[in-house]
Structures are given as C-alpha cells and as structure tokens.
Amino acid sequence: MIAFRSVVERRQQIGMMRAIGFRKGMVRTAFLIESSFIAILGTLLGVVLGLWLAKNLVDSIAKDNSSVVFNVPWLQIVLIIVVAYVASLITTFVPAWQASRVYPAEALRYE
To answer: How far apart are CA 27 and CA 99, in angstroms?
Structure first.
C-alpha cells in the first residue's frame, strides 16, 4: 500500500527521471532498491531489538529460576528474514511496474 502511494506522490519525479533518459527498467529498479533498503533496515532493526528484549526478559526470569537459558533459534530467524524480504519485494513489484510505465509528458503536467 505504501509503495502504491509512493508512486502516486512521486509521479512528477518519475516523469522527470523518464524525461532525462531513465528507461522503464531503471525506474522499476530504483523503486525495488528503495523498497529493499527499507525492508532490510526494518527487519534488521526488528531482529536486533527483539533479541535484545528477549535477552533482557530471559535474564530477568533467570534470576529466580536458574534452569531458564537464553537460546536463539537462528535458523528460524533467518527464514523469517528471507520470507519478509521476499514479501516486501513482491508487494513492491506492481507499484514499481506502474511507475516504470508513466509517460514523461503525462507525469510532468500531473497535479
């Protein structure tokens, strides 16, 4: 949804890029790279903060119960990261495709 809104809000910028020589594939790639950066940054931030919170909670519980041990399921975390990244790219592909199909003259007069 955010990617669709981004295409609508940046329609003039897309038109300008197309007018100065960006090809359709270049516009599409720019949107996919932007989405990838946001997805990777958000995912890594979530994983780091989640692990930090979990570690603090387990340490707090371990004070009363020494049998509690902090164990990170790395394989599951990596799988979740990959699925989240792929889902992000899939949901960005249609808006990126729409952005690449914008005609420069049409986008520059759009208000």
So the answer is: 7
Q: Could you tell me the end-to-end alpha-carbon distance of the chain, in angstroms, rounded to an integer? A: 21
SS3 content of the chain, % helix, strand, coil (to 5): 80, 0, 20
Quick: pLDDT tens for 1-53: 677 777 778 888 888 888 888 888 898 898 889 889 999 999 999 999 999 99
How far is CA 101 from each of CA 15, 27, 91, 97, rounded to the nearest angstrom?
Answer: 10, 9, 17, 7
Q: 55 vs 21, 50, 66, CA distance in Å?
A: 51, 9, 14
Sign of CA dihedral 27, 31, 33, 34: positive
